[in-house]
C-alpha cells in the first residue's frame, strides 16, 4: 500500500535523513542482486529445456539451483519493498482517516510487524547456525545450505530497519502540528 502521506514535506518523508538513504541504497543493491538471481534462473531454465529437448542432456542441478535462488531472491528483495513501502495493502478504510489517525494506526501495525520480523530474523539466524553445525547440504551437488540461510537472515535485517524508519516517521507525524498539514488530499490518492 502506498503511504498517503509520503512526500508531504510538512510531515517529513525522510524520518532519519542520511541513515534512511543509506538503508535505501543497501536495500536497492540487495534487490538488484535478487534481480540478477531471477535472470540467472530464467537463463538456466532456458538452457536446461534446450539441452533436454535438443541433446537429451539436461542439467542435473536445476531444481537445487532454483530452490536456493528463489529463497535468496525473496529475502534479499524484501528490504527494498519495505523501504519503499511497496507491500500489498487495502486502503479502502485507511484513506478516509485523518493524518493523525492514520499515523497512529500505522504505528500500531508497524510495531506488530517489527516484533514479528525480529522473531523471523532471530529464527533465521538460529536455523543457519543449526545448518552450519549439522553440515546439511543439497542432495545432488552437495552445496551447503548454511551460507544461503545466513544471507537470507542478513537480507531480513533490512526489513527490520525499514520498519524502524516507519515507526520514526509515524512518531514524527503524531508529534506534528495538525494545523500545519493542510496539503494532504481528502482522498489521499495524490491526485
Can you describe what's shown?
It is elongated and about 65 Å long. It is mainly alpha-helical. It contains four helices and no strands. The chain has one domain (18-175).
Describe the SSE topology.
Layout lengths: L17 H38 L6 H22 L15 H36 L11 H30 L16
Order of helices and strands: HHHH
Q: Outline, from the CA principal axes? A: elongated
Radius of gyration from the CA trace? Answer: 21 Å
Mean pLDDT: 82
Q: Between the first and last Cα atoms, what is the distance in angstroms?
A: 16 Å
Instruction: Report the count of strand segments.
Output: 0
Uncertain runs are 1-15, 179-191
Brief summary:
With 191 residues, the protein is mainly alpha-helical. The protein is built from four helices and no strands.
Key features of this structure:
4 helices, 191 residues, mainly alpha
Amino acid at each position: 500500500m502506498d503511504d498517503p502521506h509520503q512526500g508531504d514535506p510538512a510531515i517529513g518523508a525522510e524520518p532519519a535523513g542520511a541513515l534512511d538513504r543509506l538503508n535505501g541504497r543497501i536495500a536497492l543493491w540487495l534487490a538488484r542482486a535478487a534481480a540478477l538471481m531471477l535472470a540467472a534462473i530464467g537463463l538456466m531454465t532456458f538452457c536446461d529445456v534446450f539441452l533436454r529437448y535438443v541433446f537429451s542432456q539436461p542439467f542435473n542441478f536445476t531444481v537445487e539451483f532454483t530452490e536456493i535462488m528463489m529463497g535468496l531472491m525473496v529475502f534479499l528483495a524484501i528490504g527494498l519493498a519495505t523501504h519503499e513501502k511497496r507491500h500489498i495493502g487495502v486502503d479502502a478504510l485507511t484513506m478516509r482517516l485523518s493524518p493523525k489517525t492514520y499515523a497512529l494506526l500505522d504505528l500500531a501495525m508497524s510495531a506488530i510487524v517489527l516484533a514479528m520480523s525480529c522473531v523471523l530474523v532471530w529464527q533465521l539466524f538460529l536455523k543457519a547456525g543449526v545448518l552450519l553445525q549439522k553440515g546439511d547440504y543439497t542432495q545432488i551437488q552437495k552445496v551447503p545450505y548454511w551460507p544461503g540461510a545466513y544471507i537470507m537472515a542478513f537480507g531480513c535485517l533490512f526489513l527490520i530497519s525499514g520498519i524502524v524508519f516507519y515507526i520514526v516517521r509515524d512518531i514524527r507525524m503524531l508529534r506534528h502540528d495538525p494545523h500545519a498539514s493542510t496539503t494532504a488530499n481528502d482522498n489521499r490518492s495524490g491526485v
